[in-house]
Amino acid sequence: MTDINAYDTAPEAEFGDYIALLKPRVMSLVVFTAFVGLWVAPVDVHPFIAFCSVLFIALGGGASGALNMWYDADIDAVMNRTHNRPIPSGRVPAQEALALGLILSAMSVMMLGLAANWFAAGFLAFTIFFYAVIYTMWLKRWTPQNIVIGGAAGAFPPMIGWACATGGISIESVLMFALIFFWTPPHFWALALFMKEDYHKAGVPMLTVTHGRAATRRHIFAYSLVLAPFAIWLGLTSVGGPFYLAVAIVLNLLFIAGCWRILRRDEDIARADHYAVEKSVFKLSLYYLFLHFLALLVQNLLGTW
């Protein structure tokens, strides 16, 4: 890993730069899915404990983001969409990002253990380790399956939220994990289709780089077919119900249709229209996950099966 430190002419860091290290967009998804996992669990949790639990899970997610940015600064520096991040731009020294990530990691795990339970805290510690070490330091630069295996880190938060309430794991939390886990590859591969050159320049073995766009399109469609049964199965468990099931069926039909359009694309046509279909499916994938978890929340308020 290239050591990237502050440059002589680098602007002074602002508070917002340290917030950016925590990847707030990713953290917002972590917070929401963890909250839903905690909320729909079959155990009442005191509102203050629930608030603290979600807060400390969010801090753990932010810690993972800071550690990721620290280690990936050399990659971020050569990619168009990441070169202006706080470390490669020189606004934040790499050592400060590392220190922030380690401090928040220890703080979030310790405080979650005290606020909720030590099973959930241990789960959070494992998630941080998985994202920062297994994914960032190993899988991302080694295998085109990086986003498949590494996607588990982003799928753990609802399981952690569930564990905060129940102290354990159940089929419902595993299916919430599976929903995010199998959603992650088509989501990121759709992005990679119109951002291939970034990954190529950075030397990241994304599937588009190692196997080409045609293979990536086939993988996207295949994963959309694998994803749908897990999304619908979740609606048949104790946290599901007719509202969630209706939303899941509609969303998965739309997502499979979009991935089918990607599969059928001719590369020359895709390039000519600036990958409009790929971009639209990527945008749909963002709404897909949010709406599934929102539907779980609404279903819980309406009453489950």
UniProtKB/TrEMBL annotation:
EC id: 2.5.1.141
Entry keywords, A to Z: Cell membrane, Heme biosynthesis, Membrane, Transferase, Transmembrane, Transmembrane helix
Biological or metabolic pathway of the protein: Porphyrin-containing compound metabolism; heme O biosynthesis; heme O from protoheme: step 1/1
Major subcellular location class: membrane
Function summary: Converts heme B (protoheme IX) to heme O by substitution of the vinyl group on carbon 2 of heme B porphyrin ring with a hydroxyethyl farnesyl side group.
Family stated for the protein in its record: Belongs to the UbiA prenyltransferase family. Protoheme IX farnesyltransferase subfamily.
NCBIfam families: cyoE_ctaB, PRK04375.1-2
Name recorded for this polypeptide: Protoheme IX farnesyltransferase
The organism of origin for this protein: Paracoccus fistulariae
Phylogenetic classification of the source organism: Bacteria, Pseudomonadati, Pseudomonadota, Alphaproteobacteria, Rhodobacterales
